[in-house]
């Protein structure tokens, strides 16, 4: 029949049109941001036009005068469609808005922090006008975009909190990084002695980095608490928070722990060398360790109420990282041990390789044991993907290592140079890799096979006892699959935003014609819908009447 | 986590205190090699050519080798090693230039050597790092 295909084509055309329009708006806003920043910067210099600034002024004017009105016209045209937009259009709008917001936020916040810390830290800078221009120009764009995204009329219904979520992730990263820098400066000043002949006091530099930390922390606090990103419980937001707050922080912490252990271990038994290592990279390692650990623990604690899927995935990612560290460490240990067996010319790299390998292996094994819990029999369903992934990746790496070993063996045989002792030294690197990754691959393969057997053995019993079935796999399923379709008049956004915060619920709104509902009736509606969600299972259609009555229809999934 | 946060804040505050209380680098005696180097660097950074020339062997007709490089101006110079004998001295210093950029001040650090010779009982500089050197017109190629 022609009409479904026409409908499908019509949808594609609409989506494409939405993409192009919003893409244009994105580009225009970015150009406008650049132009405004340059213009304000030049204005602060008194619009003095000497040779090098002519081009800058021309660019500034061009980027303001042309994109400005065009962006406004485009926005006026687009916004009419946004009021009750198709879900695809809404999603594109949210993506574009979030992209503009994030870019403008990054530019303006970095410029602001540089400006503020530049007042204190005494690094001679005569570019405060440009920095202020950046702050004002990009700040205006960020502010406007944020207001549009959160306005009652135009707020996107799909991915509604994307901008705040990404802004929060950025602020979190910036805070953690600036905390690490500040701590590093502090540790450097405290513990790394240096005999200064000539130099300025390092106090301004330390104060400048403290300002960065405070500013970034304020930005994070604004997103996390005031924009209520912390309260968002749906899967997407939890995933983003988990990825940045837990996994990235864990990665940084584990690497820093390895670096610290590497410095502290007195493996060539030489304390002067240990002191040199500490002076070189000690402050960096310890500061990264402290900063990463703080944010990791905080977000770990935050993930507690957020549903099994997010927690499981985060555990698996962290155990994957620790396993990678463990395998690398074991490879390096094998490498170093083989080096001590053969007698190469430069034998002094072997102890440092051994030391780094032991550090990696120790950190890796501790956290892998904690997060993977190899002794405790785990639910086979949840870790299938993880096991297959690890088995696959380590098999590929083992194959590459095997190829390198083979290549080197053949190279020595064919070139026929000196004795077999050289062979061992030549292949010890890739041989270490090979042994480590082959071990990892074999272990995960064995686990996967045993899991498969357990699953196959478990299945015949499942249909016979459906009500008393395994509690663990069914827990996430009902919560995640519920849809709520609300038919309510315009202006019921307050109702929707409350409902969108419920975990595991996909909310869709179809606007009904009719007068706007007053506030108390909207509240009654919200209460009735929440009650119905608690009592009726499955997906629901809720049609709101003008006097606060709601009729519910249960939907088939 | 609270413990870690307190430790971090405590470290930063401790560093602030320590740094505020740290005295400025003392001016060393003018008859030690380190003192001569210190005075030379101070004179160089404040563009006091005559004072710098006095500390360099045959310094009378030497000019700043590279007047356009701003590297030497704002460097922080720390003493790394001193190897002094009766007549000669080699002083290894590390020069750190803070780069602008707020968060990413990877201060570029390089180590270099000052060579000194005892001439008539006073220490004079014979070789300097290139950032802070004085050269004759011939050496500069003029």
Description:
Chain A: InterPro entries: DUF5671. The complex is a heterodimer of chains A (about 550) and B (about 140). By secondary structure, chain A is mainly α. Among the domains of chain A are: about 1-160, no CATH class; about 305-455, no CATH class; about 480-555, Alpha-D-Glucose-1,6-Bisphosphate, Chain A, domain 3 (3-Layer(aba) Sandwich). Chain A contains 17 helices and 5 strands. Chain A has helices spanning about 1-45, 50-65, 65-80, 85-120, 130-150, 160-190, 205-225, 235-265, 270-300, 310-340, 350-370, 385-415, 420-460, 470-475, 475-480, 495-500, 520-535; strands at about 195-200, 480-490, 505-510, 540-545, 550-555. Chain A has a 4-stranded mixed beta sheet with strand order 3-2-4-5. Chain B is built from 4 helices and 6 strands; from the N terminus they run αααββββββα. Chain B has helices at about 1-20, 35-45, 50-55, 135-140, and strands at about 65, 75-85, 90-95, 110-120, 120-125, 135. Chain B has a single domain (about 25-140), classed as Roll (Nuclear Transport Factor 2, Chain: A), CATH 3.10.450.50. In chain B, the strands form 2 sheets. In chain B, strands 2-3-4-5 form a 4-stranded antiparallel beta sheet. Chain B has about 140 residues and is an alpha+beta fold. The chains are: A mainly alpha (about 550), B alpha+beta (about 140).
